[in-house]
Amino acid sequence: MQPPYDVWRLIDTGPLSGAENMAIDEALLRCFDPAASQPVLRTYGWDPACLSLGRFQKATALDLEHCREAQVTLVRRITGGGVIYHIDELTYSIICSPEQLPAAASVKESFRELTAFLLVFYNRLGLKAGYAVDGVDDPARLGTRTDFCFAGRESFDVIINGRKIGGNAQRRMKQLVFQHGSIPIMNRSREGLMYMRDNSPEYAAATVSLAELGVVQNRERLCRELAAAFADTVGVRLVREGLSSAEKKSAEMLLLRKYGSDAWNMEGVEDGGA
After folding, report:
1. According to the model, what pLDDT value does residue 72 have?
2. Nearest-CA neighbor of 86 among 166, 151, 23, 147?
3. Can 149 be counted among the known catalytic residues?
4. What pLDDT is recorded for position 271?
5. For residue range 48-94, what is the model confidence (pLDDT) as tens digits?
6. What pLDDT is recorded for position 203?
7. Structure pTM?
8. What are phi and psi of 246, to 5 degrees?
């Protein structure tokens, strides 16, 4: 029997290391059965600070010597895009099947549907948020990709006062949709740029954070606001839960064999047993 699609699991794991966060995200995805699982909205944070690479990005985009000297941790995501420096942020992930989402004509339109709750979230905080594509005369100017994620600007990046806030990435597999994204509480872009080989200051000039926009709510309050915006926008009810025993076991295995491995984090090579 298929579960009711209007009921989603809400899982808040709090701040964890980069390796733990990525292991849990992938464990939730691996344990998800499109025919039997309830869809998931997860919220989390990062402690200690961590740099994450996109799935197919070369680690040489980073100044690896500086990373080692500063003892900043490094992890590779299962989604694409550029480097993100994670600290002082609220992060979410979504795991569901396409049938559990509003109908959309294309993958790009589904991405718009699945980020719409972020606009509601920001607007409820008193901020006027919109998509990059809706604020330019020539959409062809969008689609810029850079090694540093927040320096790029794509169609459905969220823009407030002309500056980009956070970033979102989606991965689709057969009968599965995975999306995660960051909401910067403090702007650490300039700090993160210092770990890049190309650390031109202008790459951080067009970014913004909640604190810079006058939002001073704590993480717990922001989590509640984000969950409420998601539930209202998608039209679902959220039920707070923890990880299942299977999800915990999968995350532990992934942490050991994949996200704790230089082969994956530095080279993007998976252990056949992971």
Report:
1. 96
2. 166
3. yes
4. 74
5. 999 999 999 999 999 999 999 999 999 999 999 899 999 999 999 99
6. 80
7. 0.93
8. -65, -40
Picking from 41, 233, 44, 45, the residue whose alpha carbon sits closest to that of residue 121 is: 233
Name the one residue in this structure whose structure tokens are 């799935």: 55
In the block, tokens 């002082």 appear at 88
In b/e form, how buried is each residue of 42-53, taking b as 16+ CB within 10 angstroms? bbbbbbebbbbb
Task: Please report which confidence band the pLDDT of residue 1 belongs to, taking 50, 70 and 90 as the band edges.
Answer: very low
The amino acid at residue 110 is S
Residue-level pLDDT at 109: 74
Cα–Cα dist 75/120, whole Å: 30
Per-residue model confidence (pLDDT) at position 222: 97
- 239 closest CA partner among 31, 8, 23: 8
CATH of domain 7-267: 3.30.930.10
Active-site position among 31, 50, 149, 223 = 149
Whole-angstrom distance, CA of residue 125 vs CA of residue 121: 7
Q: What percent of the chain has pLDDT over 70?
A: 91
Tokens 């995660």 identify what position? 180
